[in-house]
Structure formats: C-alpha cells, structure tokens
Amino acid sequence: MKLMKTAAIVAAAATVLVLSACGTTQTGSSAGSTSDHLTIGVSFDLVNDIRNAELASLKAAAAKQGDKIVFVSADQDAQKQASQIQDLIQTKKVDAIVAIAVNNDQIASSIALANSSKVPFIAIDRAVSGNGKVTFQVTGDPVADGKVAAKEVLDAGGNPVIIQLVGALTDQNAVGRRDGFTAGIEAGGQKVSAQVPTDWDPTKALDGTANALQSNPKVNTIFIPSDYLLPSVQSALKAAGRLKPVGDPGHVFIVTIDGDPNGCKAIKDGLMDADVVTPVGTFGEQAIAAAHTANAGKAVTPATSQVAGFPLNQANLSTTESTVWGCTK
Amino acid sequence: MSAKTSVIALAGRVRRFLAAFPLIPVGVLLIVLFSIIQPNFFSAANLVNVLTQASVLLIAATGMTFVILTAGIDLSVGAMMFLASAFVAATLEGGLWPVLVILLVPLLTVVLGAFNGTVVATTGVPAMLVTLATLQVFRGIGGHLTEQQSLVLPDSVRFLGLGDLAGIPRAVWVAAVVVFAGAYVLKRTRFGRHVQALGSNPSAAWNAGLPVRGLLITVYAIAGLSAGIASLVQVGRLGAVQPTLDVGFELTVITAVVLGGASLSGGYGSVAGTAVGALLLTTVENGLVLSGASPYVFDIFRGAVLLIAIVGSDLPRRLLRASRRKGGEAAITP
Amino acid sequence: MRLLRYLQRVPWVRELTMLPVLILLIAILAIFEPTILSPGNLQNVLGQSTVVGIAAIGATFVILTGGIDLSVGSTIGASGVATAVVMSATGSIAFGILAGLVVGAGVGFVLGSLIHRLNLVPFVVTLAGMFVVLGATVLLSNGATISGLPTAFTGISVVTFAGLPVLVIVTIGLYVVAQLVLSLTAWGRRVILLGASRKTSVISGSPVAGVEISVYVVAGLFSAIAGVALTANLFAANASMGSNFLLNVIGAVVLGGTSLFGGRGSVTRTAIGVLLLGFLSNGMNILGLASYDQVAVTGLVILAAACLDALIHRSRRAA
Fold this sequence. Notes:
The complex is a heterotrimer of chains A (329), B (334) and C (319).
Chain A: H1 2-22, E1 39-44, H2 49-65, E2 68-73, H3 78-91, E3 96-99, H4 108-116, E4 121-125, E5 136-140, H5 142-155, E6 162-166, H6 172-187, E7 192-197, H7 202-215, E8 221-224, H8 230-239, E9 253-258, H9 261-268, E10 274-277, H10 280-295, E11 304-307, E12 310-313, H11 317-320, H12 325-328
Parallel strand pairs in A: 1-2, 1-3, 3-4, 4-5, 5-11, 6-7, 6-8, 8-9, 9-10
Antiparallel strand pairs in A: 10-12
Chain B: H1 2-20, H2 23-37, H3 44-69, H4 77-93, H5 98-123, H6 127-146, E1 151-152, E2 164-165, E3 168-169, H7 170-188, H8 190-200, H9 202-207, H10 212-238, E4 240-241, H11 249-259, H12 271-290, H13 298-326
Antiparallel strand pairs in B: 1-4, 2-3
Helix pairs in contact in B: 2-12, 3-7, 3-10, 3-11, 3-12, 4-5, 4-6, 4-10, 5-6, 5-10, 7-8, 7-10, 8-10, 11-12
Chain C: H1 2-9, H2 11-15, H3 18-32, H4 39-48, H5 50-64, H6 72-90, H7 93-117, H8 122-141, H9 151-154, E1 160-161, E2 164-165, H10 166-184, H11 186-196, H12 198-203, H13 208-234, H14 245-256, H15 267-287, H16 291-318
Antiparallel strand pairs in C: 1-2
Helix pairs in contact in C: 1-16, 3-15, 5-10, 5-11, 5-13, 5-14, 5-15, 6-7, 6-8, 6-13, 7-8, 7-13, 10-11, 11-13, 14-15
C-alpha cells in the first residue's frame, strides 16, 4: 500500500522534474519573426475604463501594422505580473512586451528577463525605475497634470475653498497628481483646505467627501485625482444637496484627471468644470512604433517620452471633444 | 438594607448589560477621545453621517450574524454585493425596468446564498472553503458582466440610498428595518430559536430532530438576502458600479459581527450586538478621518480595536464560566 | 458510483485524491495548448509556484491543528520589507534574510501565544494580525517600495542548477523536510493529534501549549521564507506585495485535501494543491482568458475539487 503510494508520487514528481529540467537552454531564442508583423505581449496592472482605452489604442496602432496583441492583466499583483510576463516571453514567444507596471520598482525582474531574452520592453502609463534596460517608455506626467488641474481652479477666479481627494499613497501617479496640484494651488497664492484619503476606494471617497463637506460647509472646489472617483463625489454632493449645474451660485467647482466617459459626460451635462485628459492614443502609437524600431535592431530615441495631459473644460468642449478618449467612446 | 440590595441589584443589572454589550464602554471611550481631538465629531450632523455610512455594513452584518451563529461563515458577501451591483448595471443596459431590477436583486442574492448553503449543508465541505470559492466565482462573473468598467447608474435604481425620509437618510431607515427584522426573527420566532439551538449544540439539534440541512440553507439564504439589500443601498449611495467595489468587505462584515460578541465557533451572538459592532467600526473610521489621522495608521488601529474588543468581550463569558465551575456545574471548555 | 467505490479502495487515491485531478487538468490544458507541456513552460509553472508553495507549507501545519492563519499575506510583506531594509542598509544578504525570518517568527509567536494563552479563535486573532502587521509595515516603510538590493541576492531568482531554478530546488527541499518532520517526528504526530482531538491531546500528556504556539511560529517562518523569495523574484519589496496570496495559500492547502477541521492532511497533498493552482493560472494565461474569467474559473475548480474530495471521504466514512 505504502509502496504504491510512494511510487505514484515519485513517478509524478519525476515526470515534472525531468520534463522541466530538459528545457533549460532554450530561453533567449525568441521566435524572431522574420516578417514585419509582430506578436506583442501586453501586460496591464488591472482592467478598468482607462486601461480599456489604452488597450484599444494599442490594438488600433497594432492593427495598422498587422501585428497581433496578446493581452493579460495582473489584478494589481506584482508577482502575478512577473509570472504573466514570463509566460508571454518564454511560452508565447512574443516579439515585444508592452507593460503597465503594478509597481514601478518590482517590474525590474520582468525587465531583466526581457533583456536576457532579447525581447524589447516598453513601459507605458506608469514610469518604471531606472535599473534594468527599458527599450522605451511613454507615460503621462502626473505632476504636470496636477498643475494643469490647479490652473483650471485658479483661472476660475474667486475665493476657492478647496478639498482634495488623494489616491493610494503607494501609487506614484496618485502622489504626483497630489503634489502637482498642491504646488500649483500654492503658487497661485491659494491653499488646499482638506485632504480626503481614498486609497482609490469608491466607498471611502464617498464617505470621506461627505465628512469633508460637512465639516467644511464653505467648500466650493473639489479636486479629484482620477475620474474613477468622480461618481462617488457626485453622490456625496447630491446627498448634501449641493450637486448644482455650472453657473448656479451654489455650484461646486470640480476638476478631475483622466478624461474617461463619466468625466466627459459630466462636462457635457454641465455638472463638471474641467478634466485633464490623458492622451492615451499617443501611448498606443508610440509604444507600437517603438516595438517595430527595436525589432528592426535599432535603438529607440528618445528612450523616454512624457506626454502631459490637456484640459477639457466648458469653454473648449466643442473644439477639443474629438481628441478625448472618453468622449469618442 | 433595602438600599444595599437595590445597589446590588443595580450592580447585577449593569454587569449583565456589560456582559451582553461589552463594547459599549469601548465605544463611549472612543467617542470621548474623538470629540476631544475634533469637536465636530460629536454633533447631530455627524451622527447622521456615521449612521448613513454604517448602513450598508449594518445590513450585511445582520445576515452574517445568522450564519456565524451556526458556526458557519460567509466569505462571499463582498463579491456577492459586487455581482448584485453589476447585475443592476447589466440589466439596466439590457433595457429592463428599473423597478423590476430592484426586485430581482434580492431574489438573485437569495439564490446565490442558498447555493452556498446547499453546498455547505449537503457536501460537508467547510463553509470557509465553499464561500472562498464562490467569492471568486461571484467576483469573476461580476467582472465579466461589467467588463471592469465604471458604470454610472441612473437615479431610478438609487431609491434606497438616495434622499431622506423625515429628515433622516433613507439608507438609515432601511438599515434600521433590516436590523429590527433580523433581531425579531432571531429572538422571537421558532426559526430563530432553532438557529440558536443548532449553533450552541449541533449534535443535540440533530438528535432533537431539527431540520438541520434546511436551517443551514436558510441562514445562508438570509445572508444572501441581506447582501442583496445592502447592495441596493450601496448602489443608491454610490451611484456607480466600479471594479474594486467591496473587495475585502466580507472581512469588515465579519469583524463587525465578532466585535458584537458573536463567537465564530457558533452559539453566541445577537443582531443587537452586531449592530453595536458595526456602529463602533464605522465610528472608528469616521473619527480617524475627521481627526486627520495619517491613513497609514488606519489598519493598525482597526486591528488593535478588533483584538482589544475580542479579548475584552470574552472576559465576561470567561468570568461566567469560572463562576459556574465554582458553583459545581460540570464545565466543559471547548 | 461503482467507479467511486472502486477509487476509494485504491490507497493512494485516498491519500492524494487530487493527483488524478491534477493530471486531468494538465491533460485538458495540453489539448487546448500543447505548449503547456513544453519543458520551458513546466519550469515556469514550478518557478511561479514557489512563493505560494513555501507559504502553503506553514499554512498546512496550522490547518492540521484545526487553526488558520489569515496573516500570511501581511507577514510575507513585513518580512520581505525587513529583509530588503536590512539588506540595503548593511549590504549583507545573510543579515537581511535573518531579519526577515526573525520578523516572521516573531509575528507567528505573538499570534500563537494570543491564540493559546487567551483561548481565542485563530480566525479573529490572525485577522487582527493581518491588519496590524500590514499597517505597521506600511507605517514603518512609509508605503515605499524598497529596491536597490545586491544583485547576488536578486540573482537567486534566475540562477539554475541541473536545469531547475534554485528557488524551485529550495522549495522541493522544504517540502521533503516538512513531510519528513510531519510523519516521522513526535512533534509532527502531536500536531495531527491536536487537530484530530484536543481532548485526547491533553489527556495523552502532549505539550499542547508548545505544539499550538510552535505551529504558528513555523507558519510565520515559512511566510517569511516566502517573503524573502518574493523579494528576490521581484528585485524589491513593499508592504502590500503579499496581499493577494491569502486566497491562493489557503486554497492550495485545502485543495490538496487537508481538512480545515484539522487532524487530516499532509504536506504532500498541499504540493498537489499548489501545482493545481499553478497549472490552472498558467494555462489560463496562455489561453488568454480575461482576468475576471480566470478568477471565476479558479473559484469553480476549487469548489468542484473540494466537493469531490468531500464525496470520496464521506462515502468512505459511511462505508
């Protein structure tokens, strides 16, 4: 009885071990498609509206070149992302990796793997740390976006009493947007009255905004670092009876970042003032172009590109709308 | 003489009250503390705030109390609520009547809960594992329905979470109704007494001929029902469905129930206690935000309150056990 | 039904119910996508399973006593951060790893002592532990990711020996040692006895306090080793990097067939559970399933496997 059990375990273990031990020296021989049509592995940190738009922009750019996209998402788990990129490089034998890192430091192991396998590594949206060799990086500029948002507030004039929602403190985009906005506001001689920590959680954003509105009844301006939290803020305002259209004396000035469908709709409906739009279309074009340059054996120059957001507001809605990803969806 | 006896009687009553609600002193202490740090904290407006913010938790935790009383657990409530919200968004997009959607949500979650209960009651797989698995199934389906988008919902389905009734937010009214209904069912009905009997002594319940399987399926269905109602209130309050909605919420719900004096080994627990636990938890969150505490300390505080409350709330039970043992009764500690 | 009864009589099926399921799963995946069986991919699956695998050893011991440790993800983060901080401060790999292990064992000791001395429910204590440990790590590290570790350390994750990544070999070694300890030592027998019947444990004079507390220390240690391995894998550590592991670790243990009620199970079974989840996740990645569909499928597989296991064991008990 014991013998059979042991034999079965040993046999199973041996099969797995032998099979995997055989496959040692075949890394680094990426399929190397001779034609210009590439297979591009795309690994995102998570899936939501803006990620869907970024994926769509990659797909659109890839389709023009006749490339194939293999997409995976890591559910905000750095280890899962490392595994998925490993699967893409070693099993799927992709010609390039385009990634939005779960964590800007912990992506380093995947970059190292891509380098040793001679697969170009392209980072988009979230800047990754310098160690390791990134073929190309195209990101937004969170600090600049925060400053653009601050400028929208200052341009509106008056005496802004500002509350600021803050995303997860471990996310450099959240921290950058916070710092950019705060710096911009202070440079204009104003100040942020209260911060609402949200951890990117819609319920915390709702409750936190409700608390802040109640303890600061004079609040007339809210900065939201991502359209993801816009519905929560609108609900909090609505519950407090303060969701008034633009132009109404009781209107609370709202400025957000991203330019997602909810943000665009709020501006069209006259409920929101400004949205700093992330140019996701540019991400896709530049990333796919870089994949082709690198696969042709050339270096991509410049190796990093920062695309600052542009404001969408009540004044430029009709002229700018067509370039905003959330409006064209 | 009579003064002395009445003092003793009063002391006894206080002791019994504290044994039933050991969290009340902890809560009072916290309220005093937060009021000193932030005077705004202790105001009528903020009281309504806390109640509103506690409403979803109160509702979900009421159903969870039934499950935990039977020594079970439901880790799938958060995912179930996400699935329910996703269902609202998907069916509205499909053109279904808002009223019908609102009616279908509790039906859906009762079925999901009954599914959990049926697997637990008939296969003998531990509830923690069953609901750990269905947590993933529900969240996956919810993600599939919404494709992980943030979907804004119209006011027509936000009835339960938006607006006031007699100056108090509807969410609070709904929570109050659910909590009182839950307490009534548990204390005053035959079904409630059966649930308590099943929790405190499962083998006796079997031997007494109680319909144990049916009871188990029903308590999980109740947890499903309350998750459905909680989800409708939440949809009403948030006005949107988002991919990270209610991730980890099951742990908050279980924490509230345990804070309220329920034992995860079954038998002990009450809806009133759970309500106190849920309010305490929300008070802590609200107080921390209002007093401007660094968000970094939130988790530590939450864990510490849980631990202190568990140790503290177990003391009366321990004393009770000790005094019983002294009284000569055979005490069997589990 | 006859097949079921036949299967129940085969001894290793009873011990390793999930082995046929694992083989079936691999076969199904291989039909859809033959590259699953390529040596390189098998190597990847093993490599990707190391962190969950190591943490699951410790969780197995805890679950064998009828307890549970929900703090595993937070402890992975805490010990990883401790390792990274000490390593980058002292430049010494050994000191770094030692710091991680001390943190893990310390967390385990505190939790185990609270559970045993105050007779508290492990679920609640380790739930509180999960919050406190995560919060404390975030606070002490300022929420930052600590990188810039010695390349000799981060290299561990890519070094291979006899064709296998070193971390895989270490993990297999840990499994062998743990299984031997469980089946051959007095401590191992006491762990199982404690889970099977606390009363018998007390009557038979087993040092219940020592066994129960030590089990959590062991779990903390294995979480710490997993944290060190994860830090090496990712070249950096932060507080929340372990947060997603809880479901997989407990899922792997129970999927392998170790009972959550305690007293029944083994480390070998856990290995099967880990490989099941590893192949499932790898296969779905390669097949290109959307992440939310992957989550749902994983849940269904865990549910189906658990029901199958319960069915086989229950009808055996009834027979």
